[in-house]
Design brief:
This protein has 6 helices and 2 strands, in the order H-E-H-H-H-H-E-H. It has a two-stranded antiparallel sheet. The termini are far apart.
């Protein structure tokens, strides 16, 4: 009985973190879609589910919410776990006010990518990439965070490419195969944001103390 209680007490904090990250991922999916769809960056099928029509989601794209939620759980747990096992922690002190600023900057990068007009797609891609690297510099500055964010960008962009190739949705005027060339930077900065949220949730639950330099 004691072992069962100990296991439960050990698992409950992680379960709370998983649930929190999942719903944060769902919210991020809604933000990303409402910006891209309303700004005519991406087009989904029109069999619109009335409850989600505001966010540009349709009956055939309901799976995006659990997909983004699951991705947020994996990324959000990968960052603090990698920090713990590799002995590396963010050079910038993480706290909830810092997390909110990081999230606001990610939303701003998304909004700019969907609304700003540059003379060439390459200029927009350069600007979004620069802002994403600034986000890493301001709120992370670790090799672990850089690698995991790059991995997130590659995997998520590849997943988008597969979906577009199968006709699930499409990007208007794609310039990187069938997607937008700035999309990897969006997922890069999004991965960093989710990763920092995961780090802070682990600190909040006091599961283990991050290594200090």
């Amino acid at each position: 009985m004691t072992n069962v209680k100990s296991l439960r007490s050990a698992l409950v904090p992680w379960l709370r973190i998983v649930i929190a990250l999942f719903f944060i991922g769902v919210i991020f999916a809604l933000v990303l879609n409402v910006l891209q769809v309303q700004r005519n960056v991406a087009a989904f099928s029109r069999d619109v589910l009335s409850g989600l029509a505001l966010f540009g989601l349709s009956m055939s794209t309901w799976w995006m919410l659990p997909s983004y939620g699951t991705g947020a759980v994996l990324i959000g747990l990968a960052f603090p776990c990698a920090d713990h096992h590799l002995g590396e922690s963010p050079k910038i002190k993480n706290e909830w006010t810092s997390i909110m600023r990081c999230t606001a900057l990610w939303i701003g990068i998304n909004h700019a990518a969907a609304t700003l007009n540059f003379s060439t797609p390459a200029q927009l891609t350069f600007w979004v990439s620069a802002m994403s690297l600034c986000l890493w510099w301001l709120y992370d500055r670790t090799r672990t965070g850089l690698f995991l964010a790059m991995l997130s960008a590659v995997v998520a962009t590849g997943f988008n490419q597969i979906l577009v190739s199968n006709g699930v949705f499409s990007y208007n005027e794609p310039d990187l195969l069938s997607v937008k060339s700035w999309l990897p930077s969006i997922y890069f900065s999004g991965g960093l944001t989710i990763g920092n949220i995961g780090r802070q949730l682990v600190v909040y639950e006091d599961l283990y103390k991050p290594h200090q330099d």
